[in-house]
Each structure stands twice: as structure tokens, then as C-alpha cells.
Queue: 2 jobs
Job 1
Amino acid sequence: MTLWSRLRSWVQTMLRRSRMESEMDAELRFHIEAFAEDLVRGGLSRQEAVRRARIAFGGIERAKEECRNERRVSLVDSLIEDMRFSVRQIRRNSGFTLAVVIALALGTGANTAVFSILHTVLLRPLPYRDPDRLVTVWQENVQRQQLDKATVADFNDWKTRNRVFDDLAFSWDAAYTLTGPGDSQSVMGYQFSANFFSLLGARPLLGRTFLPEEGTQGRDHVVVLSYQFWRNRFASDEDVIGRTIQLDGGHYIVIGVMPSDFGHPSASTDIWTPLPFPVELLENRGLHVFQVIAKLRSGVSLAQAQQELESLAQDNARRHPQTNQHWGIQLKPIRDTYTGNVRPALWVLQVSVLFMLIMACANVGNMLLARAGTQEREVAIRLALGASRGRLFRQFLIQGLTLAVMGTGAGVLLAWWGVQVLPLMFKAQLANLPLPARASGWMNWPVLLLTLAITAMTSLIFGAIPAFHNPSPSSETLNISSRATIERKSALRIRRVLIVGQVALSLLLLVGSGLLIRTFLRLQARSLGFETDHLLTCVFSLPPKRYPNVSKTGSFLEQVLARIRVLPGVESAGGINTLPLSGMDARRPITVPGMPDDSGQQNVAQFRVVTPDYFRAMRIPLREGRFFDDRERVGSPPVAIVNQKLARLLWPHSNPIGQHILVPDTAIPLLTEIIGVVGDVRHAGLASEPPIEIYRPAYQTYWPFFGLVIRTSLDPERLAGAIRQAVQSVDKDQPINSLRSMDAWATDSIALRRSSMLLLMLFAGVAVLLASFGIYSLISYTVILRTHEIGVRIALGARHRDILKSVVGQTAFLALMGMAIGLIAALNLTQFLSSLLFGVTTTDLKTLLLAMTVMMAVTAGAAYMPARRATRVDPVIALRYE
Amino acid sequence: MDKPLDLLPGTLDRLIRTAVSLESLRAYGVLLRIQQISKNRLEIQQGPLYPALYRLDHRARITSEWDESENNRTAKYYRLTAAGKRRLPTEVEKWNRIADVIAGIPGTTPEEV
């Protein structure tokens, strides 16, 4: 009761502060007047009465102040006073404050942003039932060490013979063209076996997913829409269920809409249709067409399942040596399938940024400790003058708190910015994941709060040290003759440990970013085999219903290219079935008739279908023979061009021109004459090796999707509109995709390494700055402490070199110790970078030496600046402190 | 008995509560009333009276309100709260015990100890 009423009285007082003041005034004035009147009545003059009354009352202001104290008003007053004081301190030491705030902001902001991305991409539970038991199943070519989709026959074996899966489902991609009211639109489709949705345990937002019987021929004309597609194309109309839409001319009934976080196999998938089991391929072990997903039986581990399927694969290799020799099986957790190689990059960045947070905290601690030294005397004097310890403690706490609030506030802003920028940097790698559209969806609030708490605690604890540190206003502290500071052994020891740690972490980050820079330079020095600049690309799929054969696709391509070629600014234009760097892929087994097949292994070559001008547009050089030209028409003798790598593999000692190879055109192998050899192309990007390739003419070979490459003399992006028009003037229902420059594809293909490199460079740079700042401030502090001593030494004739040595000596030792620790850490930790590296080993000597040189130079620079000040100490001034 | 007595610590609070327990009073009135009931033998410092009043008010022993004074000006009047009234008898008793003890001290002779 009393506590409550006191609190209430206090709150009322605080709220009605000015009223209390005026009431108090009135009351006291009334008192004095009443007293004076009594005195007047006793016979004094009015003036004299008032004077006496005042004297009798005593100090009016003191009485008021005591009244305020009784109401606990002073607590708040002094709090406000403390805050004002800390703001003044901040203004006075703006450099110091800026350093602390930047360190805190970088630590919290970067850490939160990176962890938010990591969590969203790697840790957040996938929207499936039992996601830990979901795996994707791949066939692995052991010789080429390459994962591939499954053949229908092998899938069937797994399905019937395994004892480790609850169920297996299959899918393949299918591009559709949606026609109907409005523009026709190219649609990214995926065909799922009827049990696919139920195996994932994915529930629809509206309607339903596939029924088992919809996986049979004739009942399969139903479609499930993705959330994005439903929103964009149907304006989120809930009545879409049951409506019929036209896909490639066929009628499909919309049965469901998936929620926004579902996007299998990639976030850009628009629709799903059922895929009846392709019975005609039941015996086929050559075409790798099935994306397979399986659910582990509960209690079965990934390793057990891997082992069981491995033995199935060995069994198949014995039974079908022609097709299955050298094919193993690889199981991957479903999340790995989505995130691929962005995983190690994100972890490396997370650890780096964590190091940076530690360094930021260390640095803030370091700076606050340094300042504590300069405030020690002030504290001692105030204690001696009667300040209460609680009051001092509160003041320092508020100083720390002010810094913490500023630093973490800036950190929150930085984190907010980071979660918007970072996903863009990894856009190409994250394309498969359904990801939050808004920054608020990325932001990981618990981690933000945790990091804020850590940094706030750091600044509070270190900020309050001066108050803890003064057990008593000792005469020693007050007596120091120097205006400078007192050396606190323990504080200095902490600062030295901090320096060692900072140097070690900086070196580690420097080595990491150095390795990535070297990787990047190595990659940049390579050639893709074609020229990416001034090249515009687009991709389209030709629906088999409207383009059922090679004469249709051929004439479409011919007309489109003819119209594009006459556009102003276009130099040449060609088409290819699998656009380099776009991730598109097609492979065919090839054999040379009459050649002894000693390995027993078929060569599988990348299968390209190109128009005659493709090579000229790409600037892929001709090595021998000729390019395709008008002679290659439907019905003319089948010919092919191979790349140098394939030519060297098949005919190492003879001229490839005029030789014949067998390559399946549709299903039956076709005897084809080699008419040319062209340069190799790094189809999958700079880090990949050129594959063996065989090119077939587009006017002889059927292919249902194509990419165009258009070499321009202008900025390629400016031609985009004209290209679209040219395509649509040939077929108005033909949508085109990926209208972008080849440079954009090239940038995407190295984005992961480039972004990792840039971020790691940034972190390393910040780390080095923080470390050098730490060293700088430690040495400045030592110099100030020892000004007097140095003055004496100089007066006695010490040389500059000796002074420098004595000031820098110990810090140099600390830096060397830090470098040694950092080097050991780097040798042990950089292996986690290895999946991002290319052409450099993790123990690359040059990188290590370079990183150490940089670290050495920076620390030496940071040490030298304050140390030089020591050599300039004027003995006369230094000794005057005495 | 001509020289007024100094106050023992805690006495002022006690006196104020006794003063306002009879009727509600202005601060100046409290001062006069204390002098009256102590028959002018106690000198009350005028300054410290106010912090004491504020303290008692803050602790809800007494309360205050603004009212018309005899010469038609508003003034602040203090009176005992219900809680203050309830505690009055026990406090009077406590006070008397202390007063007894204190009264006995100066006359104590070595033999009695």
C-alpha cells in the first residue's frame, strides 16, 4: 500500500512538475506573508516585518530543494543531468565516439544481416512434412564424377526393390505456353508423378493436389498453380478452382493453388501437371530424365539408404554393363538440392562476420578501457569531494548506455539494409529457393536482439569500469603530479590480450579474402571460348503441338533470324538449343563406327543444335573444315561439327574432317559426317572445363526449345524491344524469356565467388582497420603515460631509434604473437573455403605471405604514427609536468 | 526555561501529526499550533517544516488540499489521513515509552546500573 502510494505520488509529482513548483512557491510566499502580518500586528513596520520573516524562515531555496528531495524528484533530475553530461562527453570526444559507434554498428549489423540470410536459406524448416527424411536421388557417373537424373528403368528398379524408402516420386520439367484471353505467355511447368505432393506433405492454399488416378493417361489434364502465378495471372481470384485454362492448346482444369512458400523444384515454377508413368521408356537405361525425390522410412539413416541403393546400382551394373557400368547412386538431403554451393559460402561469411563482431566488441572494450584510464583521476577527485559511489556508477553506466544505444541503433539500420542487399548478391544461387519477398521476412529478430544485447553489454561493462576501479579516493591517485593518467596493470593486460586476438583474427580474414581474390583473378584470366560483350540472348520453347517437326521449327528460326538480322545495330544472330552459361544441358552418347571400343564405355557428348550463324555471332573460332551453311536442309546428308576436345579424343592422329560418327538424332543413331572443328567453350562457366561437344544443324535436327544469340554494335539491352517484336511478328502467340545480355549470364555464373570475395574483403578490411586502431590507441596511450620518462631520456641524450624501440617494442611483440596465432588458425580453417576456391590451394604460400605483409605494414603504420610523437617530446615541456 | 529547546530527531514528524490530528491546518498554522501545544518551549525552524510536511504527505500519513483561507485567499491545508489516524494511538504509546526512558536517563545514578 505505502509503496504503491509513494510510487503514485512520485509519478504525479513527475507528471505535474510545474504545478508542484508553483504550489510550493505559493505556499512558502503565503507562509512568509502570514508571519509578516503577525509581526506587523506586533507593532513592526511592514518592510521590517517582511525582512524579519525572511530571516526567520531561513534559506527558501534550500527548503524547496529538500521538499523536492522528499518527493524523489532529484533522482530523475540527476539522471537527466547524467545524460546531458554523456552527450557533452560524446561531443567533446567525437572521434572516439564515432569509432565506437562504427565498430558496434558493423559488428551487430553485418552479423545480423548475414545470419538472417543464413537462417532463411539453410536453417529455416522447409514447408514439408518430415523434411529431414526427404532426399533427392541421383545417378552418378563415377568416371566423370557428375550427378545426373535417373533413367526410367533404374527408377523402376529402385521403386520395386528398395527397403529403405516409404515412397519415391518422379518429375520432369515441361515448358508450356498458356494461351487464352490476353497475351500468350510462356509458363515454367513441372510434371509431377501423382504421389509427388503427398510425398512432400505439401498442402495447397486453395483446392487440392493430385489424386492417384490423375497419374494415368487421359485423366491427367489437371493443373496446380503456384502462388506467384495465381497472383500475377489470375489476380488472386479464389474462383479460379474448377476453371479451364489452355496449355499448349490442351484444356486443363485448375484444381489447386499452392502457398507462397512452396516452389519445387525452383521458386520460379509456375504450374504443376501430373506426369503419367512413361511406360514406353520402361526399359530405357540411356535417357536420364527423372528428377527423383524419396522419403526415407522412419529410422533409416541417409547412410543406410545410400548403402542399400549403392548395392542396387552395382547389381544393375553387372546385369546391364552396356548402360549401367560406372554408374553409382548419390542421395542428397532435400535442402542441399536447393541450396547447392551457396551453403559453404554462407557459413564462411557467417564465421567471418562473427569474428568481426568479436573484434568490434574487443575494440570497443579496448577504447573504453583506454578512456577509463584518463577518467580515473576525475573519479578520484569526485569521490574525495563526496560524490556517492552509486552516483558515479550510474553516470558511467549512462555513458556506456549512450554509446550502446547509438552503436546498436546504427547496427539495426545496417542490418536492415544488409538483409535487402545480401540476397541480391546471391540471387543467382538462391533462385531455386522460395524466399521471402520483403526484408522483414528475412530479418532474424532473435539474433538481432541477441547481437544487440552482446554489444550493449560490452559497452556497459567496459563503460562502467572506471567506477568499479576506484576502491577509494586514494591519496596516490590524487597526488599524481602528471596531468595524464595512471597505469592500471589489469586494464593494460586486458588491452594487450585484445590486441593479440585482433591481429590474429585480422590475419585469418586477410588470408581468407586473399585466397578468394586469387581465385577470382585466376578465373578472370581464363577465356570462356566465346565473347560475352555486345551479345543479347533470349530463350523460348516451341510447343510441340504447334511445332511438331524440324521443318516447322526450322522455318520459325529462319524467319525470326532473318528479321533480327536486318535490325539496325545487329551484326549477326544465331540460335542454339542449350545457351551457354544458362544452365541448359543436353547430352547424347556417340560412337565411331569401326573404332575398337576398348574402354567399353560410350562417349557422352554435349549435344548442340545450332543455326549456321551461331558460331559467328558467338565468335567461336573455326579450327578446321567449315561452318554450317545453306546446304544443310531437311533431307540433306546428315553432317556435324565437333569441338577440338572431341576431335582430339576421337582422332588424335588423323584428320577429323570427313570422318563419320554415330549419334542418336531422335532415338535411332544416325551416321553423321564431320565437316568442321570449332574451338572449345566453357559451357558451364569459367570454373568448368570445356565438355566434349557435337553440333548439329538446326535445319536438319528437331529441337523444341532454343536460345538466340544476337551480336550487336550497340548496347545489347537497347535492342530487347525490337527483338521481342521480331519474334512476335513471326508468331504472335510465341512468348520469349530471359531477354538479357550474355554479360549478365556471365556475371551470374561467377556471382557466388564474386560476392563471397567482396564480402570477405569488406570484413577483412574492417577487421584490419579495427586491429590497427587498437594498436594505434594502445601506443598513443603508452606514449602519453610515459611522456615524462621519455622527456628525461631525451634530455639525457637518447636517440630517436631507442625511443621508438622502447615505445613500440612490446606492441610489436604482441602483433607478432597475434600473427603467429592467426597463421596457425588460417592453416587450419581455410579448408572450409575450399569449395569456393579455384586454382589455389588453401595453403597457398603467396597468399599467406601477402596477407602477412599487409598485416605487418598496417600494424607498423598504426604503431609508427603515435610512436613518432614520442620522439618529438620536448624535454623542457615534458619535465615541466613535474 | 527561557531558552527554547532543540528538537530530538523524529520529534518534528510527531509534532506535525499531533497538530494536524485536531483540525486541518495551513503550514503556518501547523507552526503556530506546535508552539501553542508546546507552550512556546520548543523552537521550530520554519525552513525544515516544509520538507517534513512533504515527506509525510509523500508517505500518505497526512494529506493536503487547497481551500479558502480566512482572508479569502486559497491556501494549502494539511490533515491526517485515515491511515495516519489509525496509527496515532500506537504511535502515541510508543512515543510515551521513549519519553519515559529518556526522562529517566539524566537522573540515573551509578548505583542503579
Job 2
Amino acid sequence: MNGNAAMLTLLAMGLPFVAAAFAPFVTRWLGHRGAWVLALAPAAIFLHFLGYVRVVAAGRTVTGGYPWIPSFDVSFSFMIDGLSLTFALMISGIGTLIVLYSGGYLKGHPQLGRFQSFILMFMGSMLGVVLSDSFLMLFVFWELTSITSFLLIGFDHEREASRRAAVQAMVVTGAGGLGLLAGLLLLWNITGASEMSQLVHLGGEVRQSPLFLVALVLVLCGAFTKSAQFPLHFWLPNAMEAPTPVSAYLHSATMVKAGVFLLMRLNPVFGGTAAWETILPIFGGMTLVFGALLAIRQTDLKLMLAYTTMSSLGLMVMMTGFGTEHAIAAAVLYLVAHAMFKGALFMVSGIVDHEAGTRDVRRLGGLARTLPVTFVAALAAAFSMGGLPPGFGFLAKEEIYAALFHLDAWSLVFLVSAIVGNGLMMVIGFAVALKPFLGQRPAELGEVHGAPILLWLGPAVLAALGILTAVFAATMNAGISTPMVSAVAGHVDKVEATLLPHIGMPLALSVVTVVFGILVYVGLDPCREAMRRLLQAIGWGPDRGFDQFMRGLVRFSHRLTRFAQPGSLEVYMTVTFVFVAASLLVPMAVFGEWPSMPAWPEGETFYELAVMLIALIGLVAVIVARDRLTAIVSLGMQGFAVALLFMLFGAPDLSFTQFMVEALSVVILALVMTRLKLASADHRPTGEKLIDFSVALAGGVGFMLYLMRVTEGPFDNRLSDFFSAYSKPIAHGHNIVNVIIVDFRGTDTLGEISVVMVTGLAILALIRIRAGRSSAYASSDNLAGDGGTANEDGPAEGRG
Amino acid sequence: MRTLIFRTVAPYLTSLMVLFSLFVLLRGHNAPGGGFIGGLIAASAFAIYGIACGVSPVRRALRFHPMSIAGVGLLMAAIAGIVSLFDGVPFMTGLWIYPKFFGVEVPLATVMLFDTGVYLVVTGTITSIALALEERESS
């Protein structure tokens, strides 16, 4: 692998984001026809990755990239093997078609440019997920797909249902993503490898680790939420609120497969263990059956497809979990087949919706003559979805049955669920492909337009591919399937699926499936009614559970906030100071580290004593002061005395600052006092004063003892030696304090001044809020008084 | 507070203090001083002016909202850090140049830009708090 090709691949990974930046402009200039231009980007990426097929088919894994944060072993690197290459080709290839399709579907939509931009951004994120070698990159791109999916589901953000679906998808997949991050970090910790290409060879280490199960469960959190496994599936059907190109691209062909991708990628690491071979088939199997049953209940074309997508994802997870060679081959073949037929069928449902104005299967019919290409494409896709020859899905189904057919109870359970799931999916496939197109056209349908090329091109190409890949299965096996299966299995494993049926059990089971499917198809309406009744009887579902959970969460955080933030300054101050005092005094008490009484220093001069006396007088004055102003000024006096002490003991910078801070705090405290309209003297009950007094005393004594204890220890002068030695030669400054602030620890200072400014803004806002409120009360005063102008000045400038 | 003497003296006092604050800022690298102390001096200068002559004259004299001044300061400090990245050294590394003005070599550094940023942030923030508090008092 030479450097040029690696560079090109990195560029290809970045290209979608560049195209996304230009998408709004291109769309503004060229309207919906801009899609032809924008589609060049994914097409170029597709061609680039097509060039890798030969290399990868020869059994090589290509990696490349550059170190990003070498000190943390984080790199920006990619890994291309059979698995990621197949995904990259799917993402860029289907992406090209989707960009074109979006141009036709959202023709004339004012936000088409933004939509294309989101789609391209998603494409870049998804490419990143499958190509990333480094864990952290994988995680970043993983979350980016969640975010772009959020943007796309909520594209029609003026509808409440869209917003809810977007937030729901974000919460579910985002939470799973955090689990994934924790899982990846654990794997990193166990093996010391931060890259997938290293990790896949270290499976033994992971499987022996005591943390194996924890890592597995965390990774599964990510995979199951993303790939909509039961019972976390509910966000996927709701995500159908998005425009149809999104459903076709994200929520069937690519993004939801990210979870399956992750499982396949980690199969060499986690596979072969009891936990893996139990959890995956059980969850996958449940998802498969429930998805198919729920799909039967739907009448909306998109929702029917959405539930079968869930079902298909379940099937892939189940087959990946079985882990035998046939099972992995089946999962891989099915994954590829699914991307083609489901993408095509979604686009078909979008065309029907776009041209006929409804997606309700009961109100559609007889569209075949108006939409001939669409109909043929739908039919071809349905053959693949139903697992009938000559569709690519047939190959996948033969493999599934070959993998599952064993005469033990465990396999039989999954065999039956596979038959039920496949049968029902076949029903839905043909229901989508036949019902809108055949039969009598309902009278209320009105005029139906033909579809333009931008719309029908996508489904036609995908459907044709679904047939061609099956016809040329030998090429497909050698170029795509075998490398991918080998990557998933962790060793070379040849796939030999062809359209020629093997006479044997798999074929017999296929026949059973088809017969079952035909029976259900004929009785689809009563079945749907039965499912509807059943679901109504149950009443509760995870979707409603999500709402209940979110409501509970909001209520809980509200209560917690009310508890932790009661809003009374007095409480905050008291709690803070009690904690400060406790953290100073408690450790000394627990460890018995009280300071010993220091000896009275010798040789102190009279002016040092005088300054200390002034400080003491200031303190006494604070305590005995009648009114607040005197107390504030006396406090300032004490501060000045301390500043003088700093000066006398050779810290001019510190002293200087202390002077200024003391002066300003007296001014500001006095201003605040008048501002808050406090009574000039403190008239609180003695009890309260006593409490405050004890807290203040504890804090003061705590600090004193602590300082005494610290100065008793030996002084480590390495730092001060360093600074005095290097302040001039390195930083060209004699003033060590200043050099430390602005040079040696400049980044600290940058953070500090940011804090200063943010605090200033917060204080300003607080003052403004009070001013706004009191000015509302005191508006009559302003009318009467003459100072109104100065008062209005401030807020007006603040807004500018 | 608005006595005749105070009002007469305040403008001179303020300008002297601001001048002094600049002096403190610039000498800070080699002698006691620096952006933080300078900023505090400048802020107290404006606070005094505000107490003596009211807030509006101060705001007029400053021309910009004190918070914008603080913002510019923060930006300057951040830029001073970023400049070093273009020179291929880590963030916030001090860079020095020694141009000659009329035959006198003047050392200039990103560190000085940074310290000026600190000065502006402190001045702007404290001044805006003080002025906002004084505003109510004057009305």
C-alpha cells in the first residue's frame, strides 16, 4: 500500500463532508437538478473503493493513516478488509442513488439544499464508522451518525411527531453509543490495543479476561440500540417520520446496519463463547418474529417496511450469533441482499406516496400502468425479499436454512422462527410490490403522475443489481462475499452460494416458507385485524414506555434540582463554608496531624508588629461595627495590612494585587449593599448570628491550622529553583511571577481569564435581571424622578 | 459622593491611573506588575470616575461596552497562543522578535500580546460589574 493510495482513501472519507458544505449552494444554483452534480461525490468514492476489491479479494487487509495523539496511542487510521469494503461500497453506491432520488423526491422543497447536505454528512459519518481502525474514531463517527440521523428525522421540524421521533432516536442510539464507548475503552484496557486491526487478533486475551462479560454487554448496548433490537426497536418505526430517502438510506440500507457491522467486526473477538452464542440468537430471534408480526398489522407502506427492517436486522444478529461458517455466510449474504431490496422497496413506497398522495395500502391499487418501471423494480425487489429465485435473497435464504437445520431443540426453535419471519417478510414484500400496482384503481385516488427519472433510477438500479448479483453469483462470491465472510469469521472461508438449488433440506424448508407465505398473503386482511386486536388488548408497548421513562426522568431531575439548588444564597454560602471548614479540619483530626505550637519568631521589627496590630484592630472593628458600611471598610483595613505584610516579606507582586483587590472589593461591596437596599445595620436574631459565627470561626481556625501544618513540613524548592533558573534564559523576563502567569503556565491563565469573563457576564445578567424587575415595579418612580436616563442606558447597550 | 472637589479631581485622577496602569502592564515582565494588576488599576480608575461623575460619562468615554473590551482581550490572549502553532511549536509557546525603532532594539513577544489580553479582560469585566452596580445608585 503506497502513501498515495492511503492519502486518496483519507480524502475519500472526507469528501462527503466537503460536498455537504457545497450542497446548499449547488442546490440554489441548479435547483433539484443539482442532485446530478452532488451525486458525483459519492460516485467517485464508490469507484475509489471499487479499486480495492481486487486487493481485498486476494485476502489482504489494507490499513493506513497517521498518528493523531501519539502520547495516548490515538491515531487517525482506516482499515479496509472484506467487511468494511462491502459496507463502504454499499454506503457510497446506494448513497449515489439516494442523492439523485432526493433531488426528485423533494423537488421544489425550499430546504432541499439543507437536506442534501445532511444526507452527505451522514454518508461521511457512516463511511467513517465502517472504515475506522481506531476505537475513538469509530466512536466519534458512530455518534455522528446518531446526530445526522437526528437532523434527518427531524427534518420536517414543524411537525410534532417528527420532533418526538428525532429526539427518541437520538436518546436511544446516543445512550447506546455511550455504552459502546465504555465497552471499547474496556477492550482497550484489557488488550492494550487501540485499533480494530490489532484487536481482532487478540480475541483470546479478551475471552479470558474477567471483564469479558462486562465488555460484551456494553458493546451490545451500542449494537442493539443502533440496530433496533427488541425491546429497543421502537425508535425505528417512529423514525419513518423522516422523508422517504432517509428511510431508504439510513433506516434500512445503512445506519441501522451499523450495529450488525459492529457485531460482525467483533465476532473474532467475542465469538465462540457461550454468552455470545446465547444472547445474540435470543435477542435476534425475538426481534425477527416480533418485527414480522408487527409488520402484518400495518397498513402504511413505509411502516410495513420499517417493521420488516427490524425483523431483518434481528435475523442478521441471530445468524451472526450462531457463529458457524454457514451462519456467518448467511448473515453476510442476507445483509447485502437486504440493502438492495429494502432500499429499492422504500424508494418505491416513496414514489407511490409522491405520485398518488397516499401510502395507505388499502387505498391504493392499479398503478402499474402509470408507474411501469417502478412496478417492475418493486417486483424484482420483492422476489429478493421473499427469498425466491432469481433474487439475491434466495441465496441468503438457502444459506440460512443450511445453517439452522440441525436436529436439536435449540436449533429447531430458531429454525421455526426463521421460517415464520421469512414467510411473513415475503408477505409484506409482495404486499408492497403488488397491492398498490394491481387490481382496481380506487376512485378517490384522483390523478396519478408518472415518475421522473430521478425518482425511478434508484429503485431500478438496486432491483436490477439484486437480480444480477444472483445471476453472476460466482463473481460476487469471489469479489465480495468470501472476503467479507472471512473477515467476520476471522479465517478464510469460501462462500459457494449459487442460484442452482441444492436438492435437500434447505430447499424443502424454502418451499415450506413459500407455502406459509402464500397462505398468509391470501388471508392478509383477517390476519391484520387479528394482530390489531391483540395489540389493543396488550395496550402497553416500549414506545409508550419510552414516554413514561422520559417523563419520570424529567420529574426526577426537577426534584433533584429543587433539592440541590433551593435558590437561597444563605444556604449556598453556609453549605460551602461548612464544607471548606470540614475538609480542612476533619483530615487533621482523623490522621492526628495537628500542628505544633510555633515558637515566637525572633528579631521582628517594630513596624512589622505595628502592621499586625493594624490587621488585628481591623478585625475587631469588623466584629463590633454597628453598621455594615463600617464593617466593610474595616475589612478593607485588615486586607491592606496583610498586603503591607506581603510587601515587607518580599512579595511585591502579591502585595500590589492584594491592594488593588482590597480597594475594589470595598468599593463593590459598598455598591452592592446600596444596590440591594440592605438595612444599614444587621438586625438578625442572636441564634442565626451564633451559627454564622461558629461557621466563620471553624473556617478561619481551619485555614490557620492548615497553613501552620503546611509550613512545618520541609520546603520543596525544586519548582522555585527551576523558575528562578529559567525565567530569564527561556522566557526573557526577570519577574518570575509574571513569567509564570503569562508564559510558563499561560494556558492556565487563558482558562482563568475566560472564567473571569464568564463570571462577569453572569454577574451582569444577575444585575440586569434585578434591574428589569425593580424597574417594572419602580416605573412610577422613574416618571417622577430625574435619573431615568442613566438607568435606561445600561440595558440598551448590553443588548448591542 | 458627588462633591465639587471629587468631581473636579476625578478626571485627572482617572487619567493618571489609567496611564499608570499601562506603565504597570508594560514593565510587568521584568519588574513587579503585569496585566492582572494593571487591569485592576484601570478598573478602579473607571470606578472612581463613575462614582464621581456618573455612569454615562464613563460609558461615553470608553466608547465600547466594557464587556466587549473584555471579549477583545480574551480573543487577543487566545490568538497569542494560537500564533505559535503556525511556527510549528506547541500551543502558547512564547515567540520573540527584535525589531529596531530609530536604532533602538525593542523586544516584542506573543507573551506581551497575551498579557495585554489579560489586562483588557480584567479591566473590562471589573469595570462592567462596577458600572452596572453604580448605575442603580445614581438613579
